Each structure stands twice: as structure tokens, then as C-alpha cells.
Amino acid sequence: MAVTLKDIATKAGVSQAAVSIALGSSGRIAEATRERILKIAQDLGYRPNLLVQGIQTGRTQTIGLLMKFTSGYEAKLFEGIYAGLSARNYAPIVMCPDENGKELEQVHALLDRRVDGVLIRPVADALWEDHLIQIQQRGVPIVALDTEIQAADPHIDFVGTDDHHGAQVLAEHLLELGHRRFGVVSRGVFPDPLFARAQAFIETVGAAPDTTCEERTAGWRDGRYEDNAARALLGMNNRPTAIFGTTDDLADIVAQVAADRGLSIPQDFSLVGFSDTVDLRQVRPVLTTVRQSAFEIARKAATLLLDRINEKHTPGTQRKPRESILYDPELIVRETTAPPPGA
Amino acid sequence: MAVTLKDIATKAGVSQAAVSIALGSSGRIAEATRERILKIAQDLGYRPNLLVQGIQTGRTQTIGLLMKFTSGYEAKLFEGIYAGLSARNYAPIVMCPDENGKELEQVHALLDRRVDGVLIRPVADALWEDHLIQIQQRGVPIVALDTEIQAADPHIDFVGTDDHHGAQVLAEHLLELGHRRFGVVSRGVFPDPLFARAQAFIETVGAAPDTTCEERTAGWRDGRYEDNAARALLGMNNRPTAIFGTTDDLADIVAQVAADRGLSIPQDFSLVGFSDTVDLRQVRPVLTTVRQSAFEIARKAATLLLDRINEKHTPGTQRKPRESILYDPELIVRETTAPPPGA
DNA sequence: CTGAAAGCGCTTACAG
DNA sequence: CTGAAAGCGCTTACAG
């Protein structure tokens, strides 16, 4: 029913191969015939079958995207990815990792559809790594986004935020204001970026003279952070004068607990977050934080993946070494930081 | 390089057709040979090529999803869609409508990849409708999600919230509390659900005796609502005692403007929203609103689409009439509603 | 119950 | 510059 190359060939009085070439595949053809064929194709409303092209050329113009959608942050990431892909006529097939142990099925779902590459936003879950290696063995490039993949062997490209530097910048900002007694509310272990942020912050303030820093871990329940860590920190005899929530959401919880206890920010203590979460910009006082450009990071990751795909299909090109691209977050000083009380 | 049916056939000493049948395509085969073939397929790590299967069977096990990702709400919708699809081994190819007039290209991107169906969350943009008709003409089923499609001809299935009833329930709640002077902050025109909510609210309170209701339209800038409407309403001489933000975000802006002016909620006026946006549950006082189950709606839409696809491929089945499935939102009374001041 | 053949709609060498 | 043929990896009638 759909119009095929054969239909065009018949109408134009040429071979099917000629039509294929005229429409863009490799080979030479006289400019006059090409134009005639193009015209007919257009009149007939011809549309290529990307499935067939995929089989023939080994490229489907489609990538696999492995990520969860839990909040507006992921939505932002997706927008960036989409921008990077659509600029080159690529489309994403999306799979969401869940806890059902279906990782392998999901990888297969992508591979069976012959995606040209895979973009993954890793969840802190080591189970994935074996499957990713499988993908690489099939020659399908992978780029990790936002969280680095820790597997030893496969050199998976990475695009993300410079968590270390971001936390450092926040620590320096607070040190300059005169703070010496710090608190950190964080969560997660090694591969998790929140962990890296906490570490960098603690290191930086620790390097300054006469400082203390208490870290507390926030629980996680019903899809939300718990306020236990904030409570613990604000309930201390010698309360920190500056608190770092390794995520804006975490910082926001600190602010709520503070409000419940009648503490004012930044009069009683200063508070900083990480991410510049849009949804929280409405909360007063507006958080001092560090902005990571989710959109830019995601777009870059998509672009890098497409570069890898091209590289693979360009004969004679040497495969470039693994890339690890870090975006520097930007300090946004707003209403929650000030010199320590009594300073 | 990848193992094919032929490889399995050779190793099993049967024909390629026999292998195809053993692996699931139509036809009969002896149970013994089937098992032998299955075993070999597994040992070899055979994986079907869904592109080829798509060409042969006319089904790619893939649907096209047309929606924007702007906030956590869309993320929630996507989770529901994904749940509906993955339960039946379907995967989504995602396209985000933007303002570039690329609608046709995006539809083609989906159709050229031979998606079995299309799920669309319409944006208030009539441009789409012509293209959707094209999709239907190709015999590809479409289901609209969240916002109804208004085109006359094509009967596109719809799954969404009963906005009318939701707004009605909120209005009744406020009337019962004794309110008579109402305000509405809304946005958008006809196809937009916000419009329907505002209308239903105005109708309901209008049907009660001795009531007034003022509506104001919120502007939209830089991806956020403006507070002009909230300002106008709260600045009135005869300020409403109850205000309806047709979205939780809109209601939140009213709350912010109120805070700036030193007005207390619900002492000075009551406030209701629509959606039960998770991100806003942390803001105090917690909003009285109406909960729409984005996840459920989205999952139902996906399931309905898959049903349509099956229906189409089941010979002899009569095509069922258009469905319009409305989910009743649930009233969640929280901290922002009370009897009017002085009552 | 199983095999041999045709075909899905393209691309890609290979001849002319 | 163009045509005829083979092939991508499957499924589906059609014979046996």
C-alpha cells in the first residue's frame, strides 16, 4: 500500500537501483534523471522504510536511552538529550530501569531493535555493568550521563557535572563569609555523585584552620528524603553555622525543619544546596546553590554518542580514547548565606 | 556476525523455516524438534532482529510518543506510559513537539520507523491535527492523553482527567464552607484543560445564590507563570474569600503573593489548586487540591493504544467505537481551606 | 510434520 | 551513467 522504490522506478522508467541512488544512497547518477526521480518521489508521497534501511546499512538512526523519570530534573535532562538527537535526525527509544531485575530484558529490547548507540543515566546499581559490557561487545557505543560508570574494563564515555569542584566552590564561599562550624546533609555511597559532593566539601572546609564538620545521612522513604539528618544537625548543642545539603531538595528539608523550630535563615545559620532546582526557586528564602546545566550536559552527552556512532561507521578512523567531560557548576549566591551569627 | 536463523538451522540440521516456526512464528512443528531447536538457539545466544520481523509482520512492537517534557508532571505521565507498554513488551520512540514548525518531520520520523501506534499528549496547537489525520490514514491508531483532540473527523481515543467534575468538587467544597466571594486564576483557551476547569468552577459557584466570581489570567514568561493575576485578585477592594488556581502551581503563586502582602491562608482567604503536584506538598500551608492520577491515566492510555493495535491485527474483529475515558479526580482537603473570615 | 521458495523494501557491488 | 542481480534476516504460503 505504501509507495515503494519500485513504484517510483516504474513511473520514471528507470531501475529500482537508480531510484535508490537518486534518493541518497551511494552511487552516481545524471543530474537530470535524479531530479526527475526526486520529483516523482515527492508527487507520490514516497517515504523511506527506515526498518529496511536499518537492515541494509546497519544504522537505524535510533539510539537507546536508559533512564528513570522521577522528577523535573529528568525531564530537563531529556530535553537536552532530545535537542542533541533531533539536530541530527536521531530518535530515542526509551527504557526505564526499575527494580524488577529486568535489566537484561531491557538491554535486549534495545539491541533487538538495533539501536545505533546507548545513552545511559546510571542508577546506583552495579547489576547494570555486566549488561553494558554486552552492549559494547556488540560494537554499540555507550555514553554515560550524570553519573559515571565504574566498571573497570569498558571505557564508557562520560558527561556530567564536576561535583568535586562545585562542592569546593560552595565551601569556599562559606569560608569567606567567616563560617567555621559546618554541617553536611547527604545521602548515598560511592558511585553516587552526592557522595562525591559531600567528600569534596568536607575536604575543603577541613583544610581551613579551626573548622569542624558534622555529616548526617538522610533517609529515603516513599520517594522522598526524610528529615532525620536535618533534625540531628539542627538539634546539636553546638549547632553548625553553615549547612550544605548535597542536593537542593535536601537543603530544602533543612529549611523546613528550621522553620518548624523557629530558626531563621541566614540569621541563625547559612544554608547551601546543589543543582539550582527550578521547582525550589519559589521557596523563600531563595537558596544559595550551584547551578548545573542539566540541559547542556544532556545535550553534550547525546552529541558525543552520535560522534561515536559516526566514528564507528567511518572507515579508517582511529577510535578516539575515552572521554570524560565535566561541566563546571556555577555559584549562585542568593538569600540563604550570610556571615555567621555574631560575626 | 550476530547469530541468525540460518546458523541455528545448520547446527540443528533443519530448515530455516523450521527454526522460525520453533521460535514462535505461525506453523506446526514436532515438540521434540522444537525443543532441540530452542536449546540450540539459547546456546548460541540467538537474538531476533526486530527490524526484520517488523518488515515481515507489519508490527515493530514499538509505538511513537509525542509529548513535551517540561516538569515532574510529564515525568510521572511517562512512568505510567512506560508501565503500560513494558507489560506487553512494547517500547516507545519519543518525539518532543517544539515550536519550530517541525511537526510534520516528527510525524514522519515516527512513521518511517513503522511504529505500530501513536500516543500523543497534545499541546494547545491546532497545527497538529492535520498531521494526525495523516497518521490515521496510514492505519496507525492514535490515542490522546491528558488533553482531548478537537479535530472533527478522526475519532481519536482519549484518556484524561474529568476536569469539569474536579473543578465542581472544589467549588462545592468551598461553598459548603460558606464562601460566596470567589476568584479564579487561570490560563489558556479552549482546548486547554485549564480552561475547562475555570469554566466548571465558575458555573458551579454561579449556580449558588448570592455569589460573585472574578477570573484573572496569569501570564507566562520564561517557562513560568507570572504573578499578575494573583496580584490583581488580592489587590481588589472587595477581595475574594476563596481563590481557585486551576493548577497547583498557579495556586502556589497566589500563596506567594499573599505572603508578600502579609495575608494568611486560610485565615484571610481560602485557596485551592488542581493536580496534587508532589513538588508542592512541601510548601506550607499544604494546599487543598484535587488529585489526578497522572500515572494511572497515562498507563490506561498506553494500554488502550495497545488494545487498538491488537484489534487492528486481529482479523474479523469489528473496530470498536471511539473511547473517551475520564478519571475522576479526588478531593484532598488540607490546610488552605476554612470558612471565610468573620464566619 | 518439514523443506524449498518467494517475498518484505531496500542497498550495494558488479557488469555493461 | 544505468541496469540486473544478489543479499540483509526473517515470515509465510505452498508443496511434499
Q: Given the C-alpha coordinates, what overall shape of chain A results?
A: elongated
Number of strands of chain A: 14
Strand content of chain A: 15-25%
Give the averaged pLDDT of chain A, no decimals. Answer: 89
What is the radius of gyration of chain A? 26 Å
Q: What separation lies between the terminal Cα atoms of chain A?
A: 80 Å
> How helix-rich are the residues of chain A, as a percent range?
40-55%
Please, how many helices of chain A?
A: 12
Task: Using the coordinates shown, work out and report the CATH topology of the largest domain in chain A.
Answer: Rossmann fold
CATH class wording of the largest domain in chain A: Alpha Beta
Instruction: Name the biggest interface.
Output: A-B, 48 and 48 residues
Low-confidence stretches of chain A: none
Q: Number of folding domains of chain A?
A: 3
Give helix and strand order of chain A, one letter per element, not per position.
HHHHEHEHEHEEHEHEEEHEHEEHEE
Oligomeric state of this protein: homodimer
Biggest sheet features of chain A:
6 strands, parallel
CATH superfamily of the largest domain in chain A: Response regulator
